[in-house]
Amino acid sequence: MYLNCHSFHSLRYGTLSVEGLVKKAYELGVKVLVLTDINTVTAIYDFKKECEKYGIKPIAGIEVRKENKLLYITIAKTFSGIGEVNKILSEYHCDGKDLSETAPEFDQVFVVYPIDNIPAILKKDEYIGIRETELNLLVRPEFKKLISKMVILQPVTFSTKEEYKLHCVLRAVAHNTLLSKLTKKEICSKSEYFKSPKNIQDDFQRYPEIIENTNNILNSCSFEFDFKEVKNKKYYTGSKKDDLKLLRNLAYAGLKKRYGLEHAEAKKRVEKELKVIDDLHFSAYFLITWDIIRYSNSAGFMHVGRGSGANSIVSYCLEITDICPIELDLYFERFLNLNRKTPPDFDLDWSWQDRDTMLEYIFNRYGKDHVAFCGTNVEFKYKSKFREVGKVFGLPKEELDELTKKSMEIHDHNSVVKSIHECVKLLEKFPNQRSMHACGILISEAPITTYTALEMPPKGFPIVQFDMHTAEEIGLEKFDILSQRGLGTINDTVKLIKKTRGIDVDIRDTSISKNESKCNEHLSQGKTIGCFYIESPAMRGLLRRLKCEDYITLVAASSIIRPGVAQSGMMREYIYRHNNPDKFEYFHPIFKEHLSDTYGIMVYQEDVIKIAQYFGGLSLADGDILRRAMSGKGRSLSALQKVKSDFFESCRKLGHSAQLTAEAYRQIESFAGYSFCKAHSASYAVESYQSLYLKVYYPLEFMVSVINNQGGFYRTEVYIHEAKMSGGIIRTPCVNNSEFQTVLKGKEIYLGFMNLENFEDRISNAIVEERQKNGNYKSLEDFIKRIPIGIETLQILIFIGAFRFTDKPKNVLLVEARLLLVNFKPENKELMLFEEPVEEFHLPKLKREEFEDAFDEIEIIGFPISCTSFDLLETKYRGSVYVKDLLKYHKRQVKMLAYLIARKEVPTKKGKMYFGTWIDVNGDYFDTAHFPDNLKNYPFQGGGCYLLLGTVEVDFHFPTITIHKMAHMRMIPDPRYAYDKEKQYDIHKQIKEDVSLTFRKPYPQEHEIGLPRHHHIANQ
After folding, report:
1. Which residues are paired to 945 by β-bridges?
2. What pLDDT digit, counting tens, does each position of 549-568 carry?
3. Can you give the pLDDT at residue 831?
4. Sequence-distant (≥ 6) Cβ neighbours of residue 426 within 8 angstroms
């Protein structure tokens, strides 16, 4: 009876979750159900599983609409029918092909038209849907003659009065209108709820033919689907046998290059892996990945293959990854084994500049009919719920802002807000829109429209209508094609070194960029600003605490910094044990046996699985559930809860004490969603070393590339400071030397036009192109003649010193510019009569104050270039102690003057605290801790310089200052406004700082960790 059901995946229309829809049907005794979401198949696979749970026969369909108009409802006779409808919807979404008012010639699809869109001729499997409210129309001759082609249309959109109200709110949100202004056409009928099958039969008892037609459709349709069959592209070459042959040849060619053919261990492992890959029909997946990398290498791109794929020696030999699994004792089974229910995926990173080129290659190489991005279902967030719902109730912006900023408990309790609250509560877990997965690409054997309609987001690559979890469940494994700025920096640095020094650096040769002595020295001192993954204050502090002097320690550090290890309290314990290897006891002999490399501490996902299996006695299947939870891939909390029960019961049987079991599981649980596998950490460590090598030996090229890739953890100012500390001479943009990006000329670094605030890219590019074509600009007059530019944009260039080659003061240039541009409009450039020299202006000498340039720079770039921030202070005091001496002041009070770089908000049980990062007058970095009690009296007051008073705490080679008092230091008034007192301090507000926060729970204190270093747990 129910040929037209909507779930909430009919976005901003349906109000029922798939679970809610099916459960409601079950409660009414419904035996067959058709899901027909609007223009989407997002939910059909979950719908099938849910129906089968309740013993209901599922049928899949799609309600086809153009804009808001219902054209027809499609119901698939077999699964292939869904593919037919997907195809026309994909052409509509992606190719701009219009949807016809009538359905095309389908083969395996029933079509049901609404009564207001009946075609002139109904084809064999086409029907008219009649609602109970429309039965009185059947007495009319034009409808009476069509009764034999009619079916019952009892749409389902909501289930309660409250949900009907929610439907109306969602429609108002969709139409961006007030609830009161919705028309009947824009909302569903009040009858679109689950009526009992008996009531529907009673309504249509006078028309048995209509009931029979409806039942015939329900009986004729089925939704057969094999979830276990892999839907990815099956063969790379054309057959399984040829795939294996090619993969073996490539693996042995790589083996020769990486190890030499006499390396018995490597050869044995290659053979073992090839057998598993073949048994699991996974050769094509490896070969497609190899093909993508081959193209990348031929284009001169830098890539990183990371994640659990680096556990495979075959992927190392194919140059998919640069991690030797033998060196790090990485076991292949973590990546691929015969017990895994789903195959894993490779994570492949490119520079953010090259990723789109790689995507275009993949789409072109494997065919647009077979390639698409994974989708994501973006839920209504807390703020968007209140903002969207509040808008349709007519609240003004000020009140909407109040609702989004405050928690529900402290909202006003008037009737409108009460209604908004009711809707907001119902919107929990509701999808709001479909979007593009950040990196997951699917490459299918059958056309991808077999499984889904495609949509085209603004980015320009088609997406499927379901998320990565559904893709995985139906047998479509994704390729993760990611981008990052760190690789862009490495790539650009290598190119810049070639350009400036004529040196070819093979940065993928790990013999030069791994365990190199000078790099290790920088690493142990935390001199890593600008380097991928190891530049944040927390990471630099960890490197110093560990005195990290080698690759293996860096691999561990890359994982220890993750919330999983830190949240368990074991990051602190790892630091202690690393520095005191003879002053601790292992928690248990099993921890010593399996985790001796990490001092008995779980650092990687593999460690957690080892402890779960060898200490907790868990099965491999439960270990895999744990792994998925740690990867953030598991959707089932109930499955994780069962693992917990099994773990405690198994530990009890094995004779472990309750205290030991509880603490071991507390640590295991802290890893959920937040840990790296060892191979992933190793991949990050290699890339960190590559960037560190470039920073150590080619610091100016490296920092220029960091600036051009728009940095990483810090703002541009910090990277410019690093360049200056490395001997670079920083120049503000110049029309004769600068380009859009920052350029290096000898030791001089000319900032790019991209660093100027409110400066158009179009003008930047025009300046460079014209100069390259016709030579340097000879004067301001020559520049104006050649570049179409308005006075405001020209003033930015004058104020930043872009015409300093003229040797004229800025004041003079400004007057000249105004005289030259009298009545000038850029579009009239060709009409200007500059063929004759302009009369030389003789202006009175205009005096400029010493620091006027610095304030111009703050206004246009955001920070001073021609001096330091310390030079702009009213005080001449520079502190009593400097960073270089801090290690001598353990437990002593110091007074320091410092410039604020960054601060991070961190939760504690007593409230929020901050960690600050600063530089002293010598340009050296140091860190501070600001506890909640102290912050009440001495809060941060924005960017700039502060006078700090605090006690130095040296924690494993790393000094931190616990702040007792701090004062924001006054800068000199802006000399450009010497005669306008009101504006003298305006520009000071533009001094920046980097502020970040974390939403993690407070880390446990030492006394809260159930396993002390020297323990006395009887039951071992």
Report:
1. 899
2. 999 999 999 999 887 677 77
3. 47
4. 15, 162, 163, 166
Question: 3 with 75: CB under 8 angstroms?
Answer: yes
Residue type, 451: Y
Residue given tokens 């390396």 in the structure block: 263
Q: Of the candidates 632, 626, 631, 621, which has an alpha carbon nearest to the alpha carbon of residue 608?
A: 626
Largest interatomic CA distance in the chain: 102
Helix extents (H) in 406-505: 415-426, 468-473, 485-501
CB atoms within 10 A of CB 339: 10
Distances (CA, A) of 725 to 644, 730, 922: 52, 11, 9
Average pLDDT over residues 906-913: 86
Out of 445-459, 663-677, 894-908, least confident range: 663-677
Q: What pLDDT is recorded for position 343?
A: 61
- For the segment 733-767, what is each residue's pLDDT rounded down to a tens digit? 999 999 999 999 999 999 999 999 989 999 999 99
Rounded-to-integer distance, Cα 358 and Cα 350, Å: 8
Q: So what's the pLDDT on residue 57? A: 96
What is the Cα–Cα distance from 1011 to 1008, expressed in whole angstroms? 9
Quick: pLDDT tens for 340-356: 656 667 889 999 889 99
Separation CA 615–CA 599 (nearest Å): 16
Do 303 and 366 touch, CB atoms closer than 8 A? Answer: no
Q: What is the pLDDT of residue 1017?
A: 37
Cβ burial, residue 724 (10 Å; 0-12/13-18/19+): middle
Using CA of residue 297, residue 299, residue 300, residue 306, what is the dihedral sign?
Answer: negative
Q: How far apart (Å, rounded) are the C-alpha atoms in residues 543 and 168?
A: 56
pLDDT (tens digit per residue) in 150-164: 999 999 999 988 899
CA distance 594 to 604: 12
Asked if the model's pLDDT at residue 630 lies above 80, the reply is: no
Q: For residues 679 and 502, is the Cβ–Cβ distance under 8 A?
A: no
Residue pair 630/603 in contact (Cβ under 8 Å)? The answer is no
Strand partners, 464: 454
Separation CA 136–CA 115 (nearest Å): 12
More confident residue, 577 or 1015: 577
The enclosing H or E element of 624 equals helix 620-630
How far apart are alpha carbons 987 and 472 in whole angstroms? 54
Instruction: Please give the torsion angle defined by the CA atoms of residues 757, 763, 769 and 771, in that order, rounded to the nearest 10 degrees.
Output: -80
Alpha helices for 176-263 (secondary structure H): 197-203, 208-220, 240-258
Residues in the chain: 1020
For residues 23-49, give the mean pLDDT: 95
Measured distance CA(670)–CA(660) in Å, rounded: 16
Cβ pair 437, 464 in contact under 8 A: no
DSSP string, 837-858: PPPPP--------TTHHHHHHH
**Mean pLDDT, the chain, whole residue set:** 89
- Residue type at 219 in one-letter notation: N
Q: How far apart, in whole angstroms, are the C-alpha atoms of residue 934 and residue 951?
A: 13
Q: Tell me how far apart the alpha carbons of residues 722 and 849 are, in angstroms, rounded to a whole number.
A: 28
> Where is 872: in which H helix or E strand?
none
Q: Which of 65, 169, 58, 168 is nearest to 114 (CA)?
A: 65
pLDDT for residue 1020 is more than 60 = no
Render pLDDT for 838-859 as a digit per residue (tens, 0 to 9).
555 565 666 677 899 999 999 9
Residues 917, 995 contacting (CB under 8 angstroms): no
DSSP conformational letter for 609: H
Choice among 395-404, 429-438, 646-655 with the minimum mean pLDDT? 395-404
C-alpha to C-alpha distance for 623 and 337, rounded to whole angstroms: 13
Query: Closest by alpha carbon to 10, among 465, 459, 395, 391?
Result: 465
Model pLDDT, residue 568: 77
Element (H, E) at 918: strand 911-919
Q: Which residue has the tokens 């029979």?
A: 212
